[in-house]
Amino acid sequence: MLKTIINSYIGHHRLGLKLKPVLVGELYLSGKLKHPVYVFKNGVFTPVMNEGTVPTKELINVLLKNSHREVFLYPDDVLEIKKSLETALVKLTRSLSVGDPLENGTKDIKLLSLNMGGLYKNPHNDELLMLQFQSSQNLSKFLLENKKFQSHYFHNLQRENFHFIVAQPMLSSLLLLSFLQSIHLFHDKEIENLFLSSYLKDIGMALIPEDKYDVKSPTERDQNLLASHADFSSDLLDGRVPLSKNYLTIIKNHHFLNDKLKELVSKEKKKIKESDTIYGIESTLVSVFDVLVAMTNDRPYRKGMTLFQSLELIKHMMSDDYPQEFKALVIFLKQFYKN
Ligand SMILES: [Fe+2]
């Protein structure tokens, strides 16, 4: 039996001071819990698992089905999860190519995405950032060697139902890497760096208050604040990871297509000014896959579009400057989503 809801003012306040949020998916990494797990609903902490429970896939799925993306734990349980996440990620990064590539790749992608959640909570931790960078770099080499599983990795991650803030960077970067490999215009080192730039491009969201992530009708001020994450990302990474200025600029500009998208959605036929910067194909593709994944997935304030509807919009965004690449993108996506 679960303990009763903590609804006395003092009890609730004290509990709130002790508990720490973690993503529901992180419960996979917990052993036997030392304390209960809570969700925060309608202003109260409600227990959903007792102390002594081992969170199973079934228990976690019940939480996800009830739209809980975040749960609240006592600090020693959180610490235990963080330690096992880091240990599992280090271990798998070292032995990624040993054993079943489908299983290893799927697990690595899931662990990396969960670790990204930790990085959002602690963006100034150099050790955590380097673990994320080196593991992602290793993953990019592994992905290039395992082309036939790329689509499976993508769909498996999508099925995890993680919060978009941790799922989107990996989903868009997987698509980008797979597309770049398919068009044979870039060598592996460039693809690797573009994968890393794309994957780390949203790290600046860490500096934006979490209550802004799921706002159903963001004000103009909220929108401007959210848009500033691209600048924050570049600032947070500058000098801390081995990415050159060129790639930091791609990160800084990764939302440039969103302005074009806003014009298209609001049907404003505003002409792009002549002085506007012309972005290179690398920036355009990083941005395109970000927009594509965002548009085709649900958000708290809207339903996701179909792939076809998204491609119609992307066509207007890139086909004038990059008609050949747009054609290649359509062919690639048909194949990728068929697998
Ligand atoms: Fe972004």
Task: Offer a quick outline of the entry.
The chain is mainly α.
Q: What does this protein look like?
A:
The protein is mainly alpha-helical and 339 residues long. It folds into two domains: 1-78, no CATH class; 146-338, Orthogonal Bundle (Hypothetical protein af1432), CATH 1.10.3210.10. Helix content is 60%, strand content 6%. It contains 15 helices and four strands. The protein has helices at 9-18, 57-65, 75-94, 101-121, 126-145, 150-159, 164-183, 188-200, 220-227, 229-237, 245-252, 256-265, 281-296, 307-318, 323-338, and strands spanning 20-23, 37-41, 44-49, 70-73. Strands 1-4 form a two-stranded antiparallel sheet. It has a two-stranded antiparallel sheet with strand order 2-3. Strand 2 (37-41) and strand 3 form a beta hairpin. Helix 7 (164-183) crosses helix 13 (281-296), helix 8 (188-200) crosses helix 11 (245-252) and helix 13 runs antiparallel to helix 14 (307-318). The chain is globular and about 60 Å long. The termini are far apart. 35% of the residues are buried. The mean pLDDT is 87. It binds fe (ii) ion (FE2). The site of fe (ii) ion has 7 residues, from helix 10.
Q: What value does the Rg take, in angstroms? A: 21 Å
User: Strand portion, in percent?
Assistant: 5-15%
N-end to C-end Cα span: 44 Å
Q: In one word, what is the shape?
A: globular
Spatial order of the strands forming the largest sheet: 1-4
Using DSSP, what is the number of strands?
4
In this entry the ligands are: fe (ii) ion
Mean pLDDT across the residues is 87
Structural class: mainly alpha
